[in-house]
Design a protein that fits this description.
This protein is mainly α. Helices cover about 75% and strands about 0% of the residues. Helix 8 packs parallel to helix 10.
Length: about 425
């Protein structure tokens, strides 16, 4: 009798270890839940503070138009120096760092997605908007979210895998744009070089939870506002290929120039690259001159893109000016993303296309320009289509948007063979496991 009791007790202990609260499966579920909730909350806080920072800068420009000529270059130089000293892995978008960290998760947690890097990234990205840098918060949100998910798994004593960072980054996209489907697509197209079936549940769960937190606290808002216009089959067959080709070429050019800035042997660029603070100062001067001259190229470009979609006109040179401002900011090495500025550049290209197709629904043509340019830059057509569709509630344009994105993906390869984020990730390569 005693022997049977001991056997039953031993079996009960084994069952508890395998399926109880301390079991690996339960610890993993707790890590996903807690990490995704924190990602959603952080994304909302990040968005709120970034919007306030941008608004504060615009008030400063209204008060004194010439002040950015001093503040912006000095801000670029000082933030580049602070980034180098405190957390070099915090520079730039953050998405290349997550790609590199996913290739070696344990080493990646030490620098590329460490708590120090994420903390510096958070505050310096907000700071860059205080002096008018052409940056977005979406890329930094991906890096910060990957860090949060990594530490959630570390605290629960769960071995790190690439899927942890991929799930965190996907949840970051979902929280930043309030677009859960885009988070899943981004995980498949951009973060995961080879999408493993076993990470499906992790990604889906993280994106769903982060999206629910965002929806629950911020409401079911549409990022760029609702756009109900559609294109006829005839119009789509003409406008989508044209938008896709032009937008893809422009996006591919941005990628080509961005990648070349870190490797070219061209004398002036190589000299500046060896002096990062001077490089940042020079880029800041360019951004300041463009901003003061045009009054439209500061910050994320969200408001301008929103107005163009709504039917407002912008000067024909807006897309080119925002392109140069975003390129200068990205080359400077400041913390900050290119998602929102790229959508703004795409809106400028879409506004140019409206003059080519004056009888077509104007808002729909603008969206074709946005999806085409964004695809040309990031080379993730499915993600681009879903982001544009979800941020404008323009589901009736899915097929024309997809057609433009596919053409843009092809045409961008004519200019830049290498994908931007994967090319930039090589600069953060870690020792192999």
């Amino acid at each position: 009798m005693i022997g049977q009791f001991r056997i039953m007790l031993r079996r009960a202990r084994v069952m508890m270890r395998r399926h109880g609260p301390e079991a690996l499966i339960w610890r993993r579920r707790i890590a996903i839940l807690a990490g995704a909730v924190l990602v959603g909350l952080t994304a909302l806080l990040f968005a709120e503070l970034a919007d306030h920072a941008g608004a504060l800068f615009r008030r400063m420009v209204t008060w004194c138009w010439w002040l950015p000529l001093v503040v912006t270059p000095l801000g670029f130089a000082s933030f580049a120096w602070v980034t180098m000293k405190l957390a070099p892995a915090a520079k730039g978008s953050g998405i290349p760092q997550v790609i590199a960290a996913a290739r070696n998760p344990d080493e990646g947690m030490k620098a590329l997605v460490s708590a120090r890097t994420a903390f510096v990234k958070f505050w310096l990205t907000i700071g860059t908007l205080l002096f008018g840098a052409s940056v977005g918060r979406e890329g930094p949100t991906v890096q910060i979210a990957a860090s949060i998910m990594g530490y959630a798994h570390r605290i629960m004593r769960i071995p790190l895998r690439a899927s942890v960072f991929i799930a965190g980054g996907a949840a970051g996209v979902a929280g930043a744009f309030n677009t859960p489907l885009a988070g899943v697509a981004f995980a498949i197209e951009e973060l995961a070089a080879a999408y493993e079936q076993r990470m499906t549940l992790l990604v889906m769960a993280a994106v769903l939870i982060a999206g629910m937190v965002s929806l629950g606290l911020a409401g079911d808002y549409v990022y760029f506002g609702v756009m109900r216009q559609t294109l006829s089959v005839h119009d789509a067959l003409i406008a989508a290929p044209v938008a896709g080709f032009l937008g893809g070429i422009a996006g591919g050019l941005f990628s080509r120039l961005m990648l070349a800035s870190g490797s070219t042997a061209l004398g002036p660029i190589a000299w500046l690259r060896a002096r990062p603070v001077v490089m940042a100062l020079s880029c800041g001067i360019i951004v300041a001159l463009l901003g003061v001259t045009t009054g439209l190229t500061w910050g994320t470009g969200y408001e301008t893109a929103h107005n163009v979609i709504s039917g407002d006109d912008v000067p024909l040179w807006f897309g080119a000016a925002k392109f140069l401002s975003t390129l200068a900011t990205a080359v400077s090495g400041l913390p900050g993303g290119i998602f929102a500025p790229s959508l703004s550049v795409g809106a400028g290209i879409g506004d140019m296309l409206r003059s080519l197709f004056p009888t077509y629904p104007q808002g729909a043509v603008v969206l074709l320009g946005m999806v085409a340019y964004f695809t040309g830059v990031v080379r993730a057509p499915l993600t681009a289509v879903i982001i544009i569709s979800e941020t404008t509630a323009s589901r009736g344009l899915m097929m024309p948007l997809l057609a433009a994105a596919l053409v843009a993906d092809f045409s961008a390869q004519l200019v830049s063979k290498e994908r931007l984020y994967h090319g930039l990730a090589k600069r953060f390569e870690l020792p192999k496991q």
